[in-house]
């Protein structure tokens, strides 16, 4: 089905790459110290991977102010250390072989994303990329997706595209932008606590061939 599409959009964290657990645990320990509220392994996993959907909604449910959390979180992240602790999923290699235009739409902030792309040597996989901000909007908002489609030159011209990601927000963004959605499940429904639907549901991109 890879050849069915005229262009591809992809999420980054949890979809193409992941970070060693030791890094995630250390960051949440430091953030917890700042906020005076510790995070269990399960809570850290939920927030890092967005397993329950909106991270802000989850924080509010736990009684944690999202603005305070993200300020502390971004101040405690070290871009170079994170890049060194980030690894590429084996099944992500298919992206390098795509002949169609490829775009990246990620919630990973630019100051973190850029060192990761360089360290893994995958910058040239993407013809356009966007790191979401308050100004661009966040997935499942279609605006950041449509922005990258515009940069790729595939907006409003009848091209058939797909967005692949590991979260429900990726599926929502794809559908809201009129694209097909591929959900890659890196955890399993039991650990996620829910089933994420998509036009395609896979555990590995290898299943697409």
UniProtKB/TrEMBL annotation:
The keyword Lipid biosynthesis does not apply. Keywords: Hydrolase. Signal peptide: none annotated. Its EC number is 3.-.-.-. It comes from the Archaea. InterPro entries: HAD-like_hydrolase_sf (IPR050155), HAD-like_sf (IPR036412), HAD_sf (IPR023214). GO terms for molecular function: hydrolase activity. Pfam families: Hydrolase. This is HAD family hydrolase. It comes from Halosolutus amylolyticus.
């Amino acid at each position: 089905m890879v050849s069915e599409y005229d262009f591809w959009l992809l999420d980054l964290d949890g979809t193409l790459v992941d970070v060693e657990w030791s890094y995630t645990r250390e960051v949440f320990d430091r953030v917890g110290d700042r906020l005076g509220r510790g995070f269990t392994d399960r809570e850290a996993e939920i927030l890092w991977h967005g397993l329950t959907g909106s991270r802000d909604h989850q924080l509010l449910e736990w009684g944690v102010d999202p603005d305070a959390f993200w300020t502390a979180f971004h101040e405690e992240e070290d871009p170079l250390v994170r890049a060194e602790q980030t690894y590429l999923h084996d099944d992500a290699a298919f992206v390098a072989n795509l002949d169609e235009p490829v775009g990246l739409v990620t919630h990973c902030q630019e100051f973190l994303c850029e060192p990761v792309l360089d360290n893994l040597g995958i910058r040239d996989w993407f013809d356009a990329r966007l790191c979401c901000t308050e100004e661009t909007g966040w997935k499942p908002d279609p605006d950041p997706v449509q922005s990258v489609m515009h940069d790729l030159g595939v907006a409003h011209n009848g091209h058939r595209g797909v967005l692949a990601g590991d979260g429900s927000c990726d599926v929502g963004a794809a559908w809201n932008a009129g694209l097909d959605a591929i959900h890659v499940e890196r955890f399993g429904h039991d650990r996620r606590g829910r089933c994420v639907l998509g036009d395609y549901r896979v555990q590995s991109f290898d299943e697409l061939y």
